[in-house]
Amino acid sequence: MSKTAVIFDVDGVLVDSYQAHFRSWQQLFSTLNVEYGEAAFAADFGRTSRDILCRRLRGDLSEERIQELDRQKEANYRDIVRHDFPAMEGAAELIDSLATAGFLLAIGSSGPPENVELAIEHLDPLGQITAVVTGNDVTRGKPDPQVFLIAAERLGVLPAMCVVVEDAAHGVEAAHGAGMRCVALTGTTTRDNLAKADLVVDSLHEVTTARFKALVERPDQGGA
User: Fold this and answer.
1) Do 133 and 196 sit in the same domain of this protein?
2) What's the domain range around 169?
3) Which of 11, 62, 136, 167 has its CA at a distance of 20 to 30 angstroms from the CA of residue 193?
């Protein structure tokens, strides 16, 4: 069989980052005297930082101000997770087992490179993830498939030989748009919202190397 690859999203897949992102937004908005509770965060979940800032601050923000606030929010996030890193259960073990089985591994995330680097530092100390794509590498966000296509290109693997692990409907759509299979992990959304994935699981412990191989070898390549 040709070279095969698994491309991981980070937030909600390798890192259980929901609460850390919520707290980092709370810290930022508290400095701006803006009340920000969990209901607001849930309503904002999945939006870009730019969208959240403009939505909550309700003013004409300059590009420089948006970037300044976004950098502070992400610095808050890294301070939180650095002291108590919230690895997704089974993430490190899955990376090890896939690498041992001969899969090539990549990250395909729209997050800041510093956040991705921190996750890799905790989850992949052996350097088994050999290609990394972050928000700095893309011009179009999910559901556009750009992030996953770049990851496949950097690995030197055909898109049809890749499986993406995602936790969001837009990520599933992006994977299929790239011509890749997709395993979707529940936790940040419901099974119904992830129903278009090729496989939906409640834990990374449910996905074995054999299941990844079966997905790649299925003859009807393309989205479900």
Assistant:
1) yes
2) 5-16+86-217
3) 136
pTM: 0.90
What phi-psi label fits residue 46: left (phi over 0), alpha (psi between -120 and 50 degrees) or beta?
Answer: left
Same domain, 196 and 114: yes
Residue 16 and residue 49: Cα distance in Å, rounded? 19
pLDDT tens digits for 66-114? Answer: 999 999 999 999 999 998 999 999 999 999 999 999 999 999 998 899 9
Q: CA-CA distance, 171 to 149, in Å (whole number)?
A: 13
Q: Phi, psi (5° rounding) for residue 138?
A: -120, 155
- Does 4 score more than 60 pLDDT? yes
Rg for the chain (alpha carbons), in Å?
17
Q: Domain end: 44, 66, 83, which one?
A: 83
> Could you tell me the sign of the dihedral formed by the alpha carbons of 107, 112, 117, 122, in that order?
negative
Residue in 52, 117, 118 with CA at minimum distance from that of residue 80: 118
192: CB partners within 8 A, 6+ apart: none
Contact 66, 50 (CB under 8 A): yes
Please tell me the chain's helix, strand, coil percentages from 3-state DSSP, rounded to the nearest 5: 50, 15, 35
